Amino acid sequence: MTGKPSFIVEDQSETIAFLEAELKSERRIDTHGAVVFLCADRAYKLKRAVKFPYMDFSTAARRAAMCAAEIDVNRRSAPEIYLGVAPVLRRNGSLALGEVGENTADAVDWLVVMRRFDEEGLLDRMAARGALTPELMAALGARVAQFHDGLSAIASGFCSPEDYRHSVAADVRQMRETGDRLDPATSEALAEAMPRSLEPFLDLVARRVAAGAIRRCHGDLHLRNIVTLNGQPVPFDAIEFSDKIANIDVLYDLAFALMDLARQGLGTLANRLLNEWLWRVGEAEGASHEEALALLPMFLARRAAIRAYVDSAVTAVSGADNAPARAYQKAALAFLQPAPPRLVAIGGLSGSGKTTLALKLAPEIGRAPGAVVVRTDVERKRQAGISLEERMPAGSYSPEASARIYAACMARAERVLRAGHSVVLDAVFARPEERASAEALARRLGVPFQGIWLDVPKDVAQQRVTDRKGDASDATASVVERQFGYDLGAIDWKRR
User: Fold this and answer.
1) CA atoms of 71 and 26, how far apart (whole Å)
2) What is the largest CA-CA distance in the chain?
3) Domain ranges of the chain
4) CATH fold of 343-495
5) Can you tell me the distance from the alpha carbon of 440 to that of 355, in angstroms, rounded to the nearest whole number?
6) Which H or E run includes 27?
7) CA–CA separation, 265 vs 121, rounded Å?
8) Are 141 and 275 in contact (CB under 8 A)?
């Protein structure tokens, strides 16, 4: 096809012209892999006849199979959006649009049919107008954690050390092949930095497979593929065309949204998303999610590099400006810059504002997207196997139980720090030995330590715990009353 990129393998201009006339859509969206027609209450997606190394829609039969697959994979996370598949028919020499669910030999192409939603609810649109909130990120982290926990562990796809090596090499090759659509100097810097970020952690990659962390994930979880419906974030447009691309580490799945937020300067929101996910997602025995944070810089860089390559392909079709693709490319390199880990511990009686301060400080500490917040309140609920919003049964706050929770938090913090990621510990730290254990952990690992103690009047603390809703803490006004009678010993942490 003269003047068309080589990855377009079939002329669909007749079908596209027919759909424009038939659907009378309000708007048309063109991407490197699809043409989407937005109508009053429905959206119709035609897969482009393209063939990339990672995505093959080159025949009508292949596109039919991929339309059906798109419905199947997306009904896991967005059943309210995905309605079914409809054929484009040729009968008596003319094209016609079939019904959803119609199966016919007369089809020349196929459409994914979706219920249309308000595009202003897309998270990338909300980010652009400053409408994303920490509360929405908390809801997204909870939803993605629940989604990941509902998936079965697998041992195939993008998961083995050799898969990682091959994929990183492919990223480098694809960036180089784009020529000056991407910045050649940045491509070469990434060609060195990306393999270097992987090699020390190949054993961890293998252990993540054994730990059950590889699942058939969303695969394309950036902000443009998440929409708010009835106030809740709903991921849609999951990868349907490649099990290898979608069969990935759950942390790599989350990394796309983290990257997208961080690249736009929304590090505070990315940090809240990461922490909410870590607080709620199931454990990965043998290679914990905290340990896997050693892979996060490489995950973030790969997500940004892939986005750069994909966006450069879009510009090859549309002739649009390459600046956004190059911005992703530069972000990929920035994610690989070293940032030594630190340990910050925040103590204070219930209602003193520990978690509020922890979440405020965490985004600015260490490498992207900031420190992991390790909370005793969260650890207690996780060990009990209950949701963070449920109350613990009576007797759960004995001295012996509390000692176990503090020890578990220190172990979790150690895993994060050994992975090269910073930690903010959020606990009452009422006992001198509890404060000493946090300081000892930092000394043992050779990381900088800062201790912060929060003082607050009793009536303020009691009012705060009374007003809490939907938090992991079970503290009440009577708990605060009791705590104000504690002998705290000498406190040499910085008091605020």
Assistant:
1) 23
2) 90
3) 13-116, 123-335, 343-495
4) Rossmann fold (3.40.50)
5) 22
6) strand 27-30
7) 20
8) yes
Query: What is the spatial distance between Cα 363 and Cα 268, in angstroms, rounded to a whole number?
Result: 5
pTM of the model: 0.90
What CATH number is given for 123-335 in this structure?
3.90.1200.10
Instruction: Indicate the pairing of strand 107-115 with strand 82-91.
Output: antiparallel
Tens digit of pLDDT at every position of the chain (496 positions)? 445 666 777 889 999 999 999 999 999 999 888 999 999 999 999 999 998 878 889 999 999 999 999 999 999 999 999 999 999 999 888 999 999 999 888 899 999 999 999 999 999 999 999 999 999 999 999 999 999 999 999 987 678 899 899 989 988 888 888 878 888 899 899 999 999 999 999 999 999 999 999 999 999 999 999 999 999 999 999 999 888 889 999 999 999 999 999 999 999 999 999 999 999 999 988 899 999 999 999 999 999 998 888 888 776 666 667 788 899 999 999 999 999 999 999 999 999 999 999 999 999 999 999 999 999 999 999 999 999 999 988 777 888 899 999 999 999 999 999 999 999 999 999 999 999 999 999 999 999 999 999 999 999 999 999 998 888 898 889 999 999 999 999 999 999 9
Burial class for 85, CB neighbours closer than 10 Å (0-12, 13-18, 19+): buried
In sequence order, the β-bridge partners of residue 139 are none
Q: What are the structure tokens assigned to 359, written together? A: 């979440």
Cβ pair 237, 313 in contact under 8 A:
no
Structure-block tokens of residue 41: 């209450």
User: Which residue, 21, 49, 24, is CA-closest to 35?
Assistant: 49
Task: Kindly state the tokens that stand for 165.
Answer: 């090596």
Residue 343 DSSP SS3: strand
Q: Which two tokens stand for residue 446?
A: 């050779």
Both structure tokens of 385: 């196997």
Distance CA 214, CA 158 (A): 8
Q: How far apart are CA 248 and CA 238, in angstroms?
A: 13
Angle made by CA atoms 418, 419, 420, in degrees to the nearest 5 = 90
Contacts of 93 (CB under 8 A, 6+ apart): none
Rg, the chain, Cα only: 25
- Asked if the domains at 123-335 and 343-495 fall in one CATH topology, the answer is no
User: Rounded to 5 degrees, what are φ and ψ at 131?
Assistant: -100, -5
